[in-house]
Amino acid sequence: EVQLQQSGAELGKPGTSVKLSCKVSGYNIRSTYMHWVNQRPGKGLEWIGRIDPANGNTIYAEKFKSKATLTADTSSNTAYMQLSQLKSDDTAIYFCAILIAATPGGFAYWGQGTLVTVSS
Amino acid sequence: DIVMTQGALPNPVPSGESASITCQSSKSLLYSDGKTYLNWYLQRPGQSPQLLIYWMSTRASGVSDRFSGSGSGTDFTLKISRVEAEDVGVYYCQQFLEFPLTFGSGTKLEIK
Known about the structure:
Order of helices and strands of chain B: EEEEEEEEEE
Number of strands of chain A: 11
Oligomer: heterodimer
Helix content of chain A: under 10%
Largest sheet of chain B: 6 strands, antiparallel
Strand content of chain B: 35-45%
Shape of chain B: globular
Number of helices of chain A: 0
Largest interface: A-B, 22 and 27 residues
Distance between the termini of chain B: 37 Å
Distance between the termini of chain A: 40 Å
Order of helices and strands of chain A: EEEEEEEEEEE
Structural class of chain A: mainly beta
Number of strands of chain B: 10
Strand content of chain A: over 45%
Shape of chain A: globular
């Protein structure tokens, strides 16, 4: 069974950084792309970017190019997202999600989400 | 960026009735391979989103056949037949044609 296990809630001060993780079991991340999506309190879903874990290539939404840094460690089957220069409007739940070969058209599996709260 | 616009539902929907959710894209999602890159997700309260439909009309594994997707290149519909209590949540459409991937603002389904 494919599972995405995300790291626990984070409380960050304005101007600092946090690094979130997403560990995949049951599927080799080298065979897919890892996407990240956020959801601000009471709002909809927003795509942040994706990484190809096989080669480290990344694509970001324009507004996240200087905010998020995506990396992956294929040896541990884990993807990471660092959020820098935190501001109050970075407060959100952050999800990781993947496609799989059997369901190539959409995000078939999602992590449970990591709540990031930015507050002094 | 491709803008996705979703319609609202006349909530609450009586249990056992059908509900149709609309989504419109600012650009055709029909690609040269013949596939239309439009997905539907359901996010139940307090949960992560769940993929329901991809390529506009293909149900994801394990998804009830009460859910069906249809449409053209820019106008799409998710139909839920015989709505049940477990269908409550927010439905999102998403375009998967080009980066940045974009979602609709969501359509809330409540059951009576």
